[in-house]
Amino acid sequence: MKRAIWWIRRDLRLTDNQAFESALQQAGEVIPVFVLDAKLLASQYVGEKRLAFLLDGLRALDEGLRIRGSYLVVREGNPLNELGNLLRDTSSEVIFAEPDYSPYAKLRDQRITNCLPINWTGEPVFHPPGTVLKPSGEPYTVFTPFSKVWKALPTTTSRREVIVPTAIQTPPGIASVPIPEKPTLGFKIPFQTGETEAQRRLELFISTPYQAEIRISSNTTSKKIEAYADLRNRLDFEGTSGLSPYLRFGMLSIRQAVFSARNAIDSALDVEGRKGAETWLNELIWRDFYIHILYHFPRVRKQNFRIQRIRWLNKEEDFDLWCQGRTGYPVVDAGMRQLLQSGWMHNRARMITASFLTKDLLIDWRWGERWFMQHLLDGDPAANNGGWQWTSGTGTDAAPYFRIFNPVSQGIKFDPEGKYVRCWLPELSKVPLDFIHQPWRMSSDEQKSCECVIGKDYPPPIVGHAFSRNRALKAYRR
């Protein structure tokens, strides 16, 4: 084959990219192309920070291609039209691309399959939808049995070192629009874009000893992945992998992540280390699970997975206070400020803030889902939807409606020294530890002495948790 197009979508990497490898193996010349989809860019779910991260990722990919004698072709518009024009103008014979499983992507890709020569290869998930099924052929809707079958499935490929070619032949002079300069990532975004950074973070997570102030086990030199089970819920420590934005855009392949987790399980020296690596593998399986749910049940994008009619209050003034981190509950507000400023939020904080919105304020989970998608660097339609429905009690879990997080006890448990709260809520920086998660309990003199007067420097709680908890239980029982 003389010439092929590699259509880049959610796989912004040269390492372990099956669509890219197939194009290189079957064609003498490969044209890497990314299409700025006008419809997606106009969606109400597009986040400025996430778009900026994507654009920076395209620049990093273009740099990697140019080092190898190639370059990134960027087009803007309808993918079907742009790819068709590119095929004709470059006399290319076929398109190679990795599939995608969101409802919009499925419709778009089916139209392209019907009209253009395209070869779908590779996966954004480890086991693609349709491979993890019940004996009856139906999809699983509960995570635990899904994960057992997922783990038992044979793996057709083993982990291997993929060597990216030093030279990639791409015909010169192909028309391309410039990568937009705006939006740009702010200086508070804690993630550098690109697959080089993704590889660095993965190596740091799986190989570096974790040295923290917390003693997590008898082994004080546990690697970060081995400490994951103990520290992943702590808001005040970097106990997570920090890889979610890179998996979201395919700057790191899910295959490499899974193989790394399994190698860590096999090489762990003790039970605690093995538990940590297994816990991280389960998080990767949750990612697959929600993609499968969205594929088999596309209605979940707009509807409750389990049909029930909840009488949401949907008070816009309460929603606005939640969005801005002004609810009066420090751990909730710290999570929301972290999201606004950095484009990321700790997963435990995501559950706490989502529970507060849906249970304490009785606001429809779809409001929060959309807000997260508008601000998260790693905002993913499947995972974000699944997480919100799980927390709100409308999702795949069997009976979670009574799961209502107490924002005070959650703060005390997962931010015991108040470091997370003080980091994102500077107005509470001088509040004593005894009151950091419930500052309204301070006396007037104590509030003045620490420069945090409730109602002036920091808001009072917008709702009492005991009251709102009972209200939520009644609403769900109806």
Summarize the model shown.
The chain has 20 helices and 5 strands.
Instruction: Classify the secondary structure makeup into a structural class.
Output: mainly alpha
Q: Determine the strand fraction and express it as a percent band.
A: 5-15%
Distance between the termini: 63 Å
**Number of H- or I-type helical stretches:** 20
What is the CATH class designation of the largest domain? Mainly Alpha
Total strands: the figure is 5
CATH topology heading of the largest domain: DNA Cyclobutane Dipyrimidine Photolyase, subunit A, domain 3
Count of individual domains: 3
The major beta sheet can be summarized as: 5 strands, parallel
Q: Taking strands numbered 1, 2, ... along the chain, how are they ordered across the largest sheet?
A: 3-2-1-4-5
Q: What general form does the structure show?
A: globular
What order do the helices and strands follow? EHEHHEHEHEHHHHHHHHHHHHHHH
Q: In angstroms, what is the radius of gyration?
A: 24 Å
Question: What is the averaged pLDDT score?
Answer: 94
Question: In the CATH classification, which architecture of the largest domain applies?
Answer: Orthogonal Bundle
Outline the structure in words.
It is a single chain. The chain starts with a strand and ends with a helix. It has 478 residues and is mainly alpha-helical. The longest helix has 26 residues. Strand 1, helix 1 and strand 2 form a beta-alpha-beta unit. It is 46% helix and 6% strand. The model has no long low-confidence stretch (mean pLDDT 94). The chain folds into three domains: 120 residues, 3-Layer(aba) Sandwich (Rossmann fold); 102 residues, Serine Threonine Protein Phosphatase 5, Tetratricopeptide repeat (Alpha Horseshoe), CATH 1.25.40; 162 residues, DNA Cyclobutane Dipyrimidine Photolyase, subunit A, domain 3 (Orthogonal Bundle). It has a five-stranded parallel sheet, with helices on both faces.
